[in-house]
Design brief:
globular; about 5% strand; mainly alpha
């Protein structure tokens, strides 16, 4: 029985803590969410290139990336643009985990 419960904890899709073991949330192939989970686990500040930029690439491309029609005004491949716009970006980014990761990035000194 205990072995079956442990297997459930390791295979489940939600964050499960059982006997001190923690399972990260399932990401369904979303690398941005996987990166968010990794940062949260490590307690590290989010990295723009590997964790923040992929969120915007998934939601805001092609317009805000190289060759896009508003790239010259608002390039989302540059951390300073994201820092300048701050939480105004949440009009397009609705996922709470992604918002939390972006907030952590914005809170960096």
């Amino acid at each position: 029985m205990r072995k079956a419960l442990l297997m459930f904890a390791l295979v489940g899709t939600a964050s499960v803590s059982l006997w001190g073991l923690t399972r990260l949330p399932a990401t369904n192939g979303n690398s941005a969410v996987a990166a968010a989970s990794l940062s949260a686990t490590k307690g590290a500040k989010p990295n723009f290139e590997t964790e923040i930029k992929p969120i915007f690439q998934a939601k805001c491309q092609p317009c805000h990336f190289q060759g896009g029609k508003v790239y010259d005004k608002m390039p989302f491949d540059k951390p300073e643009t994201i820092t300048r716009l701050g939480t105004k970006l949440f009009t397009r980014i609705k996922d709470e985990k992604e918002q939390r990761l972006i907030r952590e990035f914005l809170d960096q000194p």
